[in-house]
From TrEMBL:
It comes from Staphylococcus gallinarum. The lineage of its organism: Bacteria, Bacillati, Bacillota, Bacilli, Bacillales. GO terms for molecular function: D-lactate dehydrogenase (NAD+) activity; NAD binding. Keywords: NAD, Oxidoreductase. This is D-lactate dehydrogenase. It holds the Pfam family 2-Hacid_dh_C. Its EC number is 1.1.1.28.
Amino acid sequence: MFKIICFGVRPHEVEIFHQFNTYDFELTLVESLLTADNITLVDGHHAVLLRANCHATMTNLKYMKAQGIEYVFTRTVGTSHIDLEAAASLGIKVANVPSYSPNAIAELSLTLALNLLRNIPFTTNRTQQFDFRVDSKMFSKEVRNCTVGIIGTGKIGYTEAQLFKGLGAKVIGYDLYPNDLCTDTLDYVSLDELLSQSDIVSIHVPHIPGENDGMIDRAFLTKMKNDAILINTARGELQK
């Protein structure tokens, strides 16, 4: 029987793993993340399933190869936690999730933006201190009076644009490859125009090593409004 060891399995996910194991793989579910300290747990398996923050380093991959591991899967879109060059050199096949619920990320981005726009952390902190006085910091623009700039208008960016549009915001976008689906929701502008006009800038682009590393740098921030909100739910590598 094909044996897969799955790292980073949260307690509430155990039932789901078994429910969707339609091919009857022999699963070993491990709550902890893969590290150099627990790498020996892969012994006796054919494949390893990871999630973010698991350490598929050159050293760990070499150990996997020595134990006969042929496949490394990750239940994430990103693969920055896997040394892909090392895996390729060792002949280990790697597979990731091409995409997942754009609504989940789009709604998170929207929530983070509104959280900052309405100064919710400040108000929450005051409430926790039993201080219910109204402060000027509690006032803000309404979304309908904001311009929202979406950088990266794929499935996630498009979904977030629709959410902000539904709240009455003016939505503009920038993408090297404009999405025809977005034309009824946002207006495409140059990156500089987007940064200078937007009250909220939300980023949804993939990290492409060697091309957009650290794209969010001092020059990027300088082009934004002084009081603008920046939301990055894409990749940390985009920030310098």
